[in-house]
Amino acid sequence: MTTNAKEPRSRLDPEPVPRRDWLGLSSLWAMGGALLFGLAGMLKLPKAAVLASPSKKFRVAIPENLPVGEAFVPPGRAVAVFKDTDGVYAVSTICTHLGCVVKPNAEGFECPCHGSKFAVNGDVKKGPAPRPLPWLKVTNNGGQLTIDEGTTVPNGTKVA
Ligand code: FES
Q1: pLDDT-based confidence at residue 5 (cuts at 50, 70, 90)
Q2: Rounded to two decimals, what is the model's pTM?
């Protein structure tokens, strides 16, 4: 005698998943993965991909005992600050030839790239630099000096 009723299968021997169902489940998992991947990408979008550059304006405290004619170079800046009897002034240390950073020395500045030499006031003493080093805007707010690397002033402009 045969029975038509299906016998319950054991948990250790599950019914095989038909091929069509397996393909459907796989595509569902693939769609879910793609959706999560896209969401993760969209969440990352609002973050800026570039870092902001430091401000061109910065405060500087020059040493009290800075000798006349000696440069003070604030750390991380391409600026040399000088103090004399007429006041304070700032000279850019970006060479006017091809943009290397010039190094201060006893006579002024020297460019390590092609050998241009500049006086303490930025005038060209030896080429190939075509122009003097530009002077930068310095403001004095009650003893607090602020230098603006983005603004040049006529050479000879000093702040008391
Ligand atoms: S970059 Fe300074 S001399 Fe050429």
Answers
A1: low
A2: 0.61
